[in-house]
Predict the structure.
Amino acid sequence: MKTNDVIFQTVAKVVFFMIIFFAVHLFFAGHYYPGGGFVGGLLTSGALVLLLLAFDMKTVQRGFPVDFKWLIGIGLLFSIGTAAGSLLFNVPFFTHAYNYFQLPLFGKTSLHTAMLFDLGVYLVVIGVTMTIIQTIGESE
Amino acid sequence: MEILMCIVAGLLFAAAVYLMLSKSLLRIIIGTGLLSHGTHLMLLTMGGLKGGAVPVLGEHASLYTDPIPQALILTAIVISFGVTAVFLVIAYRAYQELGTDNMEQMRGMETDD
Amino acid sequence: MSLLHWAILAPFLMTLFVPFIHKRASVIHTGWFVLILPIVLFAVFLQYLPVTRMNSSITQTVAWIPSLDINFTAYIDGLSLLFALLITGIGALVVLYSVFYLSKTKEKLGHFYVYLLMFMGAMLGVVLSDNVITLYMFWEFTSISSFLLIAYWYDRERSRYGALKSMLITVFGGLMMLGGFLVLSLMGDTFSIRELAAQALELNEDPLFLLAMVLVLLGAFTKSAQFPFYIWLPDAMEAPTPVSAYLHSATMVKAGIYLVARFSPIFALSGYWFWIVGAVGLFTMTWASFNAVKQTDLKGILAFSTVSQLGLIMSLLGVGAASLHVETLDDHLYTAAIIAAVFHLINHATFKGSLFMVVGIIDHETGTRDIRKLGGLMSLMPVTFTLSVIGAFSMAGLPPFNGFLSKEMFFASMVHLLELDLFQMDTWAILFPVMAWIGSVFTFLYSMMIVFKVFTGRFQPEKLEKKPHEAPIGMLVSPIILALLVVVFGLFPNLLSYSLIQPAAAAIVPAILPPGGQLDVHISFWHGFKPELFMTIGVIVIGILLYKLMPKWIKIYDYMPGKVTLNQFYNASLYAAERGSNAITNAYMTGFIRSYLVYIFTFFIALLGFTMWAKGAFHYDASSAASIGLYEAGLVVVLAISIVTILLAKSRLTSIIALGAVGYTVSLFFVVFRAPDLALTQLVIETVSTALFLLCFYHLPALSRHNEKRRFQAGNALVAAGVGVIVTLIGISAHSSKFFPSINEYYIENTYKKAGGENMVNVILVDFRGFDTLFEITVLSVAALGIYGLIKLRIGKGGETNENQ
């Protein structure tokens, strides 16, 4: 996959950040508005795929020196850790907790352990999608 | 609308089954994709269509559409993505190793292809 | 856990240590360590003698699966004790013998003793269990250990053949027996043999009684090698000789005898029992002794002789059932049959055990067991010769050995049948003594063959592999002990009368005993000029005549049909079963995924279609349906066009794009149907999937129909249409009939209250049904890693493309 389309590359760079921001927004909004870990993760991977299409595999790898397989493991650990964490507080597995805080800049915000779980989902989805795409793309 | 959607789902199922029964690997994969679309639409239909507002409490509606099929379908969509990916890779690896995408040739049968 | 339980389990526990002992202490023959166990167990069981002497018993129960009434109940009475002593006693002698028989350097002793101990434990379990399920379990254990022991030299084809044959036949019988046990337990509502025996009279009235009896007898007959199931025993002789002596003559094959004896209190009232057990036993005895004479392999002769002797004991148990029907005090005429059975059981174990060991010695010292090659060994192996004379003469029923006594009692019991006027015996009774006598003549014949063909005649050293000489003393110890017992029991039979025989016989026919009473066991050499004495004399005279004239009449065996034997039947049916299964499997397992899918879908259509039609499950009710908007109608049209495009697409790009169109249309449907989360996800997934498809394009060939024939396509279309119609019908019916209220109220109500969120779908995913999501991402991870492995890991073709290199 080698392209030398300057316009496409320039546009892709800009659009990439827009998508990423939107994805992160979707992820955080998930608990209250449509969105969440799945969509967020998929959209983030979509953005990365866009970069892959615009540039080649190596360039993207240089920009994001992340091994996506690790992302899968980290995400799974996040999710299962959140679920198991409730055991420390002597409540059944998978009991979530939440509370509302008054934060500067953000105002009234809720902090939620479900968010941590969703973060795990987010990471796994990115890891899985990118591992699949990368592996297929790399193989010749 | 529900009746129409049932027919649409049936149509998707029929097309999917037809494709899955063919000899070409790629068509089989496309068939599985159609099958999951059909299932999703069917599930959604079973929960009742357009029965209320978007299932987000911020809508402050008196009636919401059923959120359970939606949650199920969301899971199913992502899983079927994984399945499609695995199928694709198996297909292309099989093609690489065996040099054919014909299901009949794959099991060692001589065909007139 | 009582002492009895530990005694049963001890051999199993010992098996755990055998491999270590074998490995660590390889200087000393493993058999010496193993030998300790049967001796200790023998001593343990001897302690129960005073208990069973009084015809009382001990029951110990350990709960195993109490909810199903399956318990590990150990039960010891005269019968069980007799068998336990045989198992441990002969076991000890056999282990001692094997120490000298099996080379410690050449053989896999670790395996051998593990199997042997497993067998010992299983056998003890069989004879000491009161619960039929436990009994069955141990029973199958004996089959398995017998299989392993026969196949001990598994590099020989005959061994494997014999092992498989014995396994197939005995396990078949075992399963039948299990069926019989289950029928019995259904009738009697208990798994305990004692409790079943207590309600024997009611069980006799049950319509299932005969079925249970036949099934249990199938188990006993297969195990005890009765006609027509005996064919496995001659092939089992491929096992090492100690195994043949132990399993296939003294103990395991007597498990069937034990079973018949143990279930006599339940079944023996029935006339069928008398006839089946008696007639099958007697026929087996005659048939096998007739066949033994034509064998040329010493172990072959012994195998058929074992079958024959087992038949003899079986027939005695069968006709002994008559004692239950005779009201007069004269009944000891028939209990004598039971007593003879028990006595002969002991005698057979002693003389046949010693004979097997003698044959083992001959085989070991000369390198062959073929009587055509052997001869004139008398002066070279005097001790072995003496032992074989004692064993064989006892088997032939000659005085002063124990075989003479039990053979006389056998004749007596058969002759007494002439006076019986039960079960239509008035017409048929004469057959019993006649067959018994004919069988005994042949028994005499092959017994003489064992002695005289081997030890007298011309010595043929050129045909032997080794230079024959007397066996080492260690190898002779066990057969000497057994031969001594043959003589001692022959001269002083009343050593056994009330210590072992009476309690065992009493346990077989408890019904005729008054409380606290005993059976009258009277064994004596001389009881006047009775028919049995003349029968014995006749056997000897005719036997000697036939032996002398053997070359003249031996050809009659050539006239026996060679093609239609039971063995041919076994081989042919095994072959047919393999071929048949193969053909059937190959017929539907085509290796073509389409075939499997067609099975699945056809079944789906047939089953669901039939159910819907038969139950009248189809409903149509569109009253609650939502209206159809113009926009939705448009989407449906787009969807339909896309589907048709996929179906007709000639190029892969077209079909991929059309698939993408279907996906996007579906996501638009999600928008219309107020599912924003789904719409978003579907949209992104569709994009990523399309990218994936396009990526794979580099690696996939162009789309081809592969010359699908019209008929092929038409068949597919038919199945596809069927599935589509069924799905639609189910969807419509499901929509039209609502039996339960929706559970979504709970989620709508609690999304904010309990989970502190507002987006119900997301809250369900991460909170209410978090487990689903957790497993879902796990599945996704597995898929991703699987893909990674599929692509990166290249094994095969020499494995040189492994990425780790």
About this structure: Chain B touches chain C through 89 residues (CB under 8 Å). The domain at 2-106 of chain B is CATH 1.10.287.3510 (Helix Hairpins). The radius of gyration of chain B is 19 Å. Chain B has one domain: 2-106.
